[in-house]
Each structure stands twice: as C-alpha cells, then as structure tokens.
C-alpha cells in the first residue's frame, strides 16, 4: 500500500511540473557560470547544476573534466554491456528509469553531464545556510557512492545525492516546493 501511495505521489509531482501553456519567463539564473572559451574552471568537490526542462540536474565535480551524478536509467536493468550503458542517457532511458525506480551514480564528462545546457556553479551554501564539508571530502563521498541505487523522484534524486555529499544531509529543495 505504501509503495502504491509513493508511486502515485511521484507521478502527481511529475505531472504537476509540466507547464505546457506557461507564458512566464524562465527563472533567473541563481548561479554563476565559470566557463571561458570552452574551458571549465571548476574545483574538485564543486556542486554543479544544469537547468533541464522540468527540473535542475545536479552533480559533483571530481576533477579532470569528470562529474559524478545520480541518473535514473532503465538500460542497466536490460543489459550488462558497459559500453552501451555508459553512452549518454536519453530522455526515454531516463523516464523509464524513473518509472522503474532504478538509477546509478555514474561518472561522465562535464559535456555529457551538461547535455547541451550551460553548467552552473551552485550557490546552495547560502540557500541551505549550512557549512559545506571540505572539497576533498565532498568528492570522496561522491566517488564512494558510484554504482547502482534505488531511485525516487521525491526521496532519492540527484539533488539528495549532491546535498548529502556536500553538506552531510540529503535534502531536495525542488521536491519540497
């Protein structure tokens, strides 16, 4: 019964964020871009975000142009072929991963993580009013969690992952709104 209720809440939450007829301008960017001439200037342990259609996607910069991020993905359920799984996650794979509640914390290049969107340095430090952990500790936490995990849009998403890594507490401001 509880699983059914959780599934219903997740689907309602997802549908509530579809804004088919909105004429409102997009939200102003609340993070500073750190990119010049195609080169990123992030430091190991930085919390990154990229705007998506419905939500903002988050990751932890690991250095060497790599980002750890939590992605729902159905393909690891269907195959163990690592070369297929490591390809950029399409929207179809993502949506089926959300429905099936299967995800992984994976490492991708900054470009694959961004998926065509601008990469922003997150300013959650002031929003959450919490002291971030040391940058190396943030990156180590992210690296330690790489692999397959259960997914929940409301209780275990990419924002929960990065806030746990950076602040020691998993929260999602997007799902609390």
UniProtKB/TrEMBL annotation:
The active site is at residue 158. Keywords: Signal. InterPro entries: LRAT, LRAT_dom. Residues 47-174 form the LRAT domain. The keyword DNA-binding does not apply. Gene3D superfamilies: endopeptidase domain like (from Nostoc punctiforme). Residues 1-16 form the signal peptide. This is LRAT domain-containing protein. It comes from Cirrhinus mrigala.
């Amino acid at each position: 019964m509880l699983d059914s209720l959780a599934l219903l809440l997740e689907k309602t939450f997802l549908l509530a964020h579809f804004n088919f007829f909105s004429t409102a301008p997009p939200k102003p960017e609340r993070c500073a871009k750190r990119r010049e001439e195609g080169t990123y200037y992030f430091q190991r342990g930085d919390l990154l975000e990229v705007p998506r259609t419905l939500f903002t996607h988050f990751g932890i910069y690991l250095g060497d142009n790599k980002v750890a991020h939590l992605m729902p993905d159905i393909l690891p359920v269907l195959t163990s072929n690592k070369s297929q799984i490591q390809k950029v996650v399409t929207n179809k794979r993502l949506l089926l991963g959300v429905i099936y509640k299967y995800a992984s914390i994976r490492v991708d290049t900054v470009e694959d993580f961004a998926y065509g969107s601008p990469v922003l340095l997150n300013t959650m430090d002031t929003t959450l009013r919490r002291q971030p952990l040391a940058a190396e500790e943030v990156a180590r936490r992210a690296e330690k969690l790489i692999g397959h995990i259960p997914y929940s849009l409301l209780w275990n998403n990419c924002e929960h992952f990065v806030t746990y890594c950076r602040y020691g507490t998993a929260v999602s401001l997007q799902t609390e709104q």
